[in-house]
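Attaching the record inline, Q. Sequence:
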Amino acid sequence: MKMSKYNIITEAINKHDFIVYNILNKRLIRIPNKGLINQQWFKEKYMDFFDDGSENIKKRYLFDSMKYQTTRLNITLMMTMSCNFRCIYCFENDVRMHDFGVLDTEFVINWIINMLKKYKIKQLDLCFHGGEPLLEFDKIVLIANNLKKYCIINNLSYLFTIVSNGFLLTNNRSSVLKRAGISIIQITLDGSKEAHDKRRFLKNGLG
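Structure, as predicted:
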């Protein structure tokens, strides 16, 4: 029996102990030294951190479960390809010149609801993406409010998130988004203010 290739071992904050986390089994333990891992009693007690030959089977099962299960619907909704930033590494710059049309909120809402009904979905995970999605703030709120209402009425779980550069996010907008059911907003910061402004600046060149 060999150590799992999915183990991550790192120093604890106190720098005396070590944290071992297995990303396949989602198991975590704290140990006083790395040497314990090689001892037989440790292998017998903490089987989840070792490969007995079945790891590839477990991995395939997990991947297939995520691929074929129908109780959860995951959607990433591109609200717009427009953006108020011109980040130097943006992979969307090349496609921004194309006309993708205007997002039809009524069509999107009805399409998602039909998917929920058709496949008897129990949980809706919806991520608002872009471009910069907050350029379409009103549409986000409209879509989220309608889908939140549908999920509550039909006893469905839901998770609404946004990936944003954060420039257009205000306290008031945060409150509106929260009421619409959006619970997570991911904002990327590229280091210090100076580093961030060199890499991620507005399309007018300002930081």
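Helices lie at 40-45, 55-68, 105-118, 137-153, 171-179, 193-199. The radius of gyration is 23 Å.

More tomorrow.
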